[in-house]
Every structure is written in structure tokens, then in C-alpha cells.
Amino acid sequence: MQFLKESLPYPFWFSFLAVAATNGDDNGNQTTQAQAELFLKNAYKILTEYSYKSSLAAWARATNITDYNSQVEIKAYLAYTEVYAEVQKNASKFDLNKLDYDTSRQIRMLSNSTNLKNQTEFEESEKLGSRLSKLYSTAKVGNNSLSPQLVNIMAKSRDYDELLQAWWGWRNESGRKMRDVYRRFVELKNKGARENGYTDRGQAWRGRYEVDDLGNIVEKLWNDLRPLYLEMHAYVRYKLTKTYRGKVLENDYIPAHLLGNMWAQSWVNIYDLVEPYKNKPSLDVTSNLKKDSRYNTPEKLTKLAESFFESIGLKKLPANFYKNSLLQKPKDRDVVCHASAWDFLLYQDVRIKQCVEITHNHLVTLHHELGHIQYYLQYGNLPYVYRTGANPGFHEAVGDLMSLSVDTPGHLETLGLLKDYKSDNEADINALMKMAMRKVAFLPFGYLIDQWRWNVFNGKISEKEYNAKWWELRRKYQGIKPPVPRSEDDFDPGAKYHIPSDTPYIRYFISYVLQFQFHKAACKAKGFTGSLFKCSIHKSKAAGKKIGAMLELGKSKPWPIALEKMTGSKNMSVAPIKEYFEPLRKWLVKERCDKKYKVGWPGQSADGVQDCETTSAGVKNVNGKYSSAILLFVASLLQFVVSM
Asked: Is 231 labeled as catalytic in the residue annotation?
């Protein structure tokens, strides 16, 4: 720890050690409570300083990918983790039973770690992580990088073979090269988790939600949403059979490269192929954004997103935000273009890194990233361990909460971006379909990534079946298949950013559930009484006040309390998302019954999906169980017969 002593004023270093050394000495002049409070104060000061230095180094590497910057990043992070290890060692000495609830909770959070004890192994794991990130960020197919070239091909091309080349090429140049590195990386990360009392790294990740049965909770949420996804999948597949005749088949999986996105996680880019009513104005405002001088640069588009947060009374961005952020891809160096928000913890230094393009999708993404920034600003005065989301899904949900308002036709009209729009039933179905292509299509993808990874961590998926199990899950949950044969020479999970970056992913599934809960609560605060999908909270200070009250809690309270603060309930629920899309679900059922196309795919049941055998009283579902309306009708009929 010599470097630490040299970097901090001597009195601070002395007091830091003194608190640790006298911890638990009830015969001294201080109580254990007072000692703990002083320890936390000093620990947070040093952790904030070293976290800031580590974040600066990580930013430098992410915005200029070089071997030198990667080495500096690793060195800075190692320094931070060494300090954190010293803090954790001293934190573990406190008797939590002698502390008040809040202090003991902070000490407990500080004590959690998954870092390897052996410094050589720890440094190896960090170097492997940096190598994985570099393999992903510098991969190219010919002269085409992922963003914007390959992303644009996947979004805009309707040529089956061109899409296949981009899809197949990206996996060859990214994931395929990571397999051996990833195997060793997992081995080391798992060892670190076990050394700190966890069964594996997956258990450590799930522990961030402070519940014992996260897997069961998420499974229940997904099963409740699955019938809606099955309807979407069936409709989109039916439409694709018309575009790619002989390539997409009824009652089969959808080839993964035909859904407008490199990972088939969002289908919104093929909305033009599935649009329900073609005689309506386009809901994609990309062309209008590019023509509008108010919005047609990366900075102007970002300021447009910022204005939404200000309109509901939330915090303004700090003066240095635009100076420090990266909003445009540089021409002279490689950068990690994957959009992300950054909190440097000191000096109100918050930033986003996004290679902004003037498109509808990027406008939505900017609101998402600024949602993270708003969260950082709201909890910025809390103690170090509380400066994060109530649970990881909360952070992801906040920006998407805003996008649910931003993406409404009504709001886009107020911005002057949607021309000649008239609301009617057909226009509403179009709007809901476009939103579903972004939101509903994502749900199984958000669920399966960490299912795969949790099972890698716990050994249920061995290195010899990485790729086979990946595609088993994608078939099972998404109903998609690889367009070309895959083998264990491939490593298709690595073609998705969050695998090489070691970023947990279940947060995104949870965020998609939470954002609709938040949206319903915010709309209620505004006093909105119409259909949920038509609500925009733009300019509603009442909605902003409710949102801010939740955000400022950070992680200072368990997440059910933060959820209750916003929604009135401590439980996650899919009821709002089902309510939001219910008009679309009904339309999809009618469309399927009228066109007589199939629902589901090989090996999977369609339980819960409505069948087309209707009566005047209701609809029978596919497993033969009649709706309550039919049962009531039959009961009434029998009663009538008996009475005759």
C-alpha cells in the first residue's frame, strides 16, 4: 500500500489506519457507532478519489483504444481495487450488531467483493477482460466496423445474402476470436466469487438485487408476458414469409439475421416490412430530424433530449457535460461506440459516450443515456455505496421511462417532427406495433443472456457446449435460429457487447418491466386518464416530482421501498406492460385468425395464446380451456334449461 500513503496527505492516511486499528475497542473514547461513522467518512473519501482516477483511465481507453491506454486503465483499476480491498478488510472487523441499521447496511455493502485474493491472478483477469473488450471494439468485417457500417446494413438492407454476410462476418471477427480468452476469464472470475463466499459469479450478480429467488421472480414475469410475445413473433414471421419467400417458413424459427438488428434484440428497424396499415404517415422521424436545423447535429439532438428532463422539473446538466462527453465518432482513432453513461463521482463530472447519428433510434437512445445521468445527479449527495440504482434494473428503466413519452405520436407532433398525423384506430395500431417491435421483441433476449451466463458460471454449461446451449436458449425463448450452421469453433455469445465487457444483462429485462410500472405511475401523477400508450409526461412537473423522489433515494433503501415510492407497490408487475399493449394484442389475435397463420415454433407450446374458435361469449385458448365468459354463458344456459 506504499503508493496509497504517498498519494494522500499523511494525516488522512494516519486517521484511516487509526480508525481500523481501534475498531471494536469499547474501552476507548469513541463508541463503536462513532468509530464506524468516522471509518465510513474516511473510506468514502479515499474510494471516491481512486474511483475517479480509475474512471478517467477507463474513459481514456474507451475513447481512444490503444495498447498504452489499456495498460493505464488496468493499472488505475488495480490501484482502486487494492484500496478497496484494504477498506473491505477493515470494514469486516466491525460488529454489525453494535451499529444502527443504516451504518451496518453501509458496512455490509462495503464488505461485498468478488475480487481474487491472489494479486497475480487478479491482474491476469483484468488483462483478459481488457483483451476481450478490445477484440470486440476493434473487430471489422473487411473495412466495415460494427458502428455505423454493419449496424446500418442490418437495419436497412433487405437483401438476404448481404444481411447474412454482415451477420456471419461479425461473429467470425468478434466472438469466434474470444472463445479461449473467455474460458479462462470465467475460470478466474468464478474463483474470485468463491473466495468471497459465493457459490459462483452468477450468485454474486443476483445478490445485487437483495432477494433470494431472483431467478424464480424473473421466470414468473416472463411466463406472464410470453403469450404477448408469441403473438408478435407469429405476425412478424408471417410478414417475413412474404418478403423472403422460401427463406422464412410457417411454424418454423425466424432466421436471426432478418430482424433488423445484429442480435435480433430489437425488431424496430424492419417496421416497414410489418407495418399494419400502409396508408398512414410514417412514424419514423429520421428524415425530419435530418432536415430540421434545430436537431440535425449530435449536440443539438442531445440538447433536445435534455430539454425533456428540464420540462418535468428535473435537474439540468452540469456546465461541463457537453465539453467532457463524446457525442460523435472521431475519424482519427478507434473508440467504443456502444452508448454508455458515466459518473465520475467528483466535481459533478457526468458524461455520455455515444457515436450519435441523426436518427429516430438515436434520439430514443439519448433519452435513455440521459436518464442514467439524471439518476447520477439526483443521488449525487448520498454516501458512496448508495450512489447507484435501487437495483440494477432501476437505472436502465429511468431513461426508457422518458422514451415511452418521447416516442408517442402526440409528443413527436409537438416537436414538429411528425407531419400530417391524425389519431384513429389504424394509426394507434401502427404506433403500438412500432413500440412493440422495440419493447416486446426484446423481452426474451433480455431474459436469456444471463440464463446462459448463470449456467456457464455454475457449470451447467461446459466450455464444450458454449455455442450449442446459446442457440438452444435462443430457439426456446426467441423462436429464432442461426441462418448458417454453427459449431463449437464459434462463440456467438461474444458477438454481443455485454459478454466480453462482463456486464450483467438481466437488469435490462427487469428494466422493461419497471419502466411500464413507472410510466403508469407518472401518468397517474400527471392526471392522465386516457389509454396508457397515448400518455406523454412532457412538461408535467407533478410527474417529475414523483420521479425525482424515487431517484434521490439511490440505493439508500432496499429497492421495494423505492418502487413503492414511485408506484405504491413493493412488487414488480407486468400488468402495466400488458395494459399498454392490450389493444395491439387483440388486433394480433384477429389478424392471425383472419389470415390463418400459425403461432409458436417447433418444440414449444403456445399455452395462453387465444385460439380462433369463438362464440358470442368469448374465445377459447389453444390448450382447450374456455374463457370465463364462455363458462358463465354455459352455466346460465344450463340454469335456464333446468328451470324449464
From this structure: no
